């Protein structure tokens, strides 16, 4: 079939492989080379008339085209058995070698590429006689010799003295890139050899052959290899120092080493060794010279840089080893130094970002880093928290500072430690450890802080703010061991708030009670709930008493409100005596008869220490004032209705108030901001030789004036008394616990008994205290020592 350049046909004819032996240019082959296919696309049109192709062996194929049916009929398509001439390879190889050298030298081949491809095709795929059976083998061997000779020409160039390592790398990169391009073109030309002979013979492919020769002659030359690797490492070192380098050059050369299978053997060990040496020296130097936050930032930057190198040119197979080297030399080796040098400072200065960065860096190196930073966090909490608790001079600020400290730690836990469960447990355990370093006092002060928030003096806070503050105080309450101490002080303060009417909100009181109930259970709050019930019942009693007094004459026209309290629910108050006005005594007797007539078998005991009064009077003409005072203050002021001048001893004789209470009462009336009495001499202390007169020049812009009720504030002696009562209650609980255990076990060794006592009791106790209580029970014959073993106890039924 004659060759045609028409492009309208959509059918390509399959060529008989024996239609040409010597490259006759007039014979067309439909099997064109890949190179030719990249440049142009051959199409063959079928003529409307029949066309016959004649082959050298006489076979033919006829193509008939019909405009009506469009059918294609192929006839006599048989495999040719034409044998090439015996000297065919010798005639063809010079053409192929000439074309091959043209490719390697970058010149134009004089022979048509299609013809070259066809010759190679004939040598590899046609049936051959015995004399030419080694044509593909000869072709492969000759090709290898040409490539071998050509690649060896690179070596002298690369062995020349080139002082600048960057120039040397650029020359090597240029040679490699040119080699890759030539190798690709040769592979395309000899593709049939790859698909036939190479596929079945145990020899490298043409591409692999090129790579192998380049590796053998060029990159396995020790001088070239060393200059290449050292040059790459020098560029990487420059980049690590902050200099600008040609990343594409590094990327291409490393890619070359990977393609030649030299990366892992030759480059990677040297690269990792230089990396470790750099970061080992850098870490040792900078940990001593940089401030801790600067060092952490430097480490983070180094990790980012190495990750960028992995992205840009270092192979991903090196990632684990590379990142490990950086982490090991900059983090793991300096954990102790980083923590001791500045961890406490970072927390003290509230540098959340730096602590978060330290945690993230330590997280990278696994459990060893996390355990260390958690331990440092716990030690910080114990150290700085203990300083807040044990300083007696700062007791008045302890709770507020503890709240601030806890809030600060919670923020570190959230922002830096990501609310990690183990870190949260460290915070709780450490906080609990230091807050109980000083027994009883934190519990007392937390109870006082709750009282301060629930009193009317805290009305400036909204209900939501008050709830938040109470929740924070409850968190502190959870950490203390002496919850019975808290209960004692809380109950005493609650009693004052309820009896004196000092609660900011009944809802807030009940809300706090509910919180305590949820936290500690019904037993803990049963007495507190009883106090609220007594107050409600007292309101009903006073309504009934007012109805009883309706229509009856009230002594002295005095109004009275009484709260009837159940002794078991309320704090224990010492009975006090005082001489009341006659009218008040008569009214008190009327109430006693009324109450006892409705509740037989009960006994009323009056407690004057919590009473308060509202007095009306004037110190100047027509200047009527109302004074909110305690009962003791009222008794003293009423004396001046009959006397102008009274001595300290006179006041004691007329009122019978205990000296301690009287001194505080007179101090509030004569030495406070609002002075209703004048005192001689003018000192701040109350002495036995002092004299008092009514301050007739007193004036105030308000009509109702509140006088500071000194007796509402607990004295140190009262606080100590409350604590002692708690300790005494603990002794009773220890006794009950020991008896309960012995009653169950009958016979028990001392060590086992001690262990079970500590397991059952929830408040903090010492070993010596338990031993003392056991000795007390032995003396009282609740149990005895075994006759044969002194350290074994027997229960006495």
UniProtKB/TrEMBL annotation:
Residues 441-670 form the Cullin family profile domain. Pathway: Protein modification; protein ubiquitination. One of its GO terms (cellular component) is nucleus. It holds the Pfam family Cullin_Nedd8. Residues 1-63 are annotated as: Disordered. GO terms for molecular function: ubiquitin protein ligase binding. It comes from the Eukaryota. One of its GO terms (biological process) is DNA repair. Residues 1-10, 43-58 have a biased composition (Polar residues). Keywords: DNA damage, DNA repair, Isopeptide bond, Phosphoprotein, Ubl conjugation, Ubl conjugation pathway. Belongs to the cullin family. This is Cullin-4.
């Amino acid at each position: 079939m004659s060759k045609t350049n028409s492009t309208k046909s959509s059918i390509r004819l399959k060529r008989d492989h024996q239609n040409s032996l010597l490259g006759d240019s007039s014979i067309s082959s439909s099997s064109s080379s890949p190179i030719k296919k990249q440049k142009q696309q051959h199409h063959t049109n079928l003529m409307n008339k029949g066309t016959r192709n004649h082959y050298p062996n006489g076979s033919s194929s006829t193509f008939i085209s019909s405009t009506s049916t469009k059918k294609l009929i192929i006839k006599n398509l048989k495999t040719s058995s034409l044998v090439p001439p015996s000297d065919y390879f010798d005639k063809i190889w010079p053409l192929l070698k000439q074309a091959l050298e043209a490719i390697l030298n970058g010149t134009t081949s004089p022979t048509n590429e299609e013809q070259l491809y066809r010759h190679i095709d004939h040598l590899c795929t046609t049936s051959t006689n015995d004399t030419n059976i080694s044509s593909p083998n000869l072709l492969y061997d000759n090709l290898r010799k040409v490539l071998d000779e050509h690649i060896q020409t690179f070596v002298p160039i690369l062995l020349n003295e080139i002082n600048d390592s960057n120039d040397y790398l650029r020359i090597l990169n240029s040679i490699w890139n040119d080699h890759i391009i030539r190798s690709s073109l040769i592979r395309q030309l000899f593709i049939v050899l790859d698909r036939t002979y190479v596929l079945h013979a145990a020899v490298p492919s043409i591409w692999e052959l090129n790579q192998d020769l380049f590796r053998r002659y060029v990159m396995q030359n020790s001088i070239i290899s060393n200059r290449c690797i050292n040059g790459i490492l020098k560029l990487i070192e420059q980049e690590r120092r902050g200099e600008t380098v040609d990343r594409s050059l590094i990327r291409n050369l490393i890619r070359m080493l990977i393609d030649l299978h030299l990366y892992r053997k030759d480059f990677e060990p040297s690269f990792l060794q230089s990396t470790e040496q750099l970061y080992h020296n850098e870490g040792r130097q900078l940990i001593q010279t940089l401030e801790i936050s600067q060092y952490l930032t430097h480490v983070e930057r180094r990790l980012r840089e190495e990750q960028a190198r992995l992205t840009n040119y270092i192979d991903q197979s090196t990632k684990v080893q590379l990142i490990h080297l950086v982490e090991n030399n900059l983090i793991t080796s300096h954990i102790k130094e980083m923590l001791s040098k500045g961890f406490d400072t970072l927390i003290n200065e509230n540098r959340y970002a730096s602590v978060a960065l330290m945690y993230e860096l330590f997280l990278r190196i696994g459990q060893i880093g996390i355990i260390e930073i958690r331990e440092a966090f716990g030690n910080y909490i114990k150290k700085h928290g203990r300083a807040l608790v044990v300083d007696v001079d700062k007791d008045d600020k302890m709770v507020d500072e503890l709240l601030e400290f806890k809030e600060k730690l919670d923020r570190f836990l959230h922002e830096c430690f990501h609310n990690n469960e183990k870190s949260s447990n460290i915070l709780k355990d450490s906080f609990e450890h230091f807050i109980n370093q000083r027994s009883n006092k934190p519990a007392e002060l937390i109870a006082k802080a709750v009282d301060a928030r629930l009193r009317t003096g805290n009305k400036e806070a909204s209900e939501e703010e008050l709830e938040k503050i109470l929740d924070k105080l409850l968190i502190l309450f959870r950490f203390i061991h002496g919850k019975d101490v808290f209960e004692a002080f809380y109950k005493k303060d609650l009693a004052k708030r309820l009896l004196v009417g000092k609660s900011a909100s009944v809802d807030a009181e009940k809300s706090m009670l509910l919180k305590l109930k949820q936290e500690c259970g019904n037993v803990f709050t049963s007495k507190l709930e009883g106090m609220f019930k007594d107050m409600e019942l007292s309101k009903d009693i006073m309504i009934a008493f007012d109805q009883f007094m309706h229509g009856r004459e009230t002594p002295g026209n005095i109004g009275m409100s009484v709260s009837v309290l159940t002794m078991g629910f309320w704090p224990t108050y010492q009975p006090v005596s005082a001489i009341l006005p006659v009218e008040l005594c008569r009214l008190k007797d009327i109430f006693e008869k009324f109450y006892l007539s409705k509740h037989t078998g009960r006994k009323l005991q009056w407690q004057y220490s919590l009473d308060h009064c509202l007095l009306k009077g004037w110190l100047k003409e027509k200047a009527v004032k109302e004074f909110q005072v305690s009962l003791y203050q009222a008794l003293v002021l009423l004396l001046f209705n009959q006397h102008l001048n009274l001595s300290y001893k006179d006041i004691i004789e007329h009122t019978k108030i205990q000296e301690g209470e009287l001194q505080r009462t007179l101090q509030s009336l004569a030495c406070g901001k609002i002075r209703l009495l004048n005192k001689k001499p003018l000192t701040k202390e109350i002495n036995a030789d002092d004299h008092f007169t009514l301050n007739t020049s007193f004036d105030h812009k308000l009509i109702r004036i509140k006088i500071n009720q000194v007796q509402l504030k607990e004295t140190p002696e009262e606080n100590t008394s409350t604590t002692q009562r708690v300790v005494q209650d603990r002794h009773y609980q220890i006794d009950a616990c020991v008896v309960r255990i012995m009653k169950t076990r009958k016979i028990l060794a001392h060590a086992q008994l001690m262990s079970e006592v500590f397991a059952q009791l929830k408040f903090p106790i010492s070993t010596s205290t338990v031993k003392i209580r056991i000795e007390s029970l032995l003396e009282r014959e609740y149990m005895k020592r075994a006759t044969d073993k002194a350290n074994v106890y027997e229960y006495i039924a």
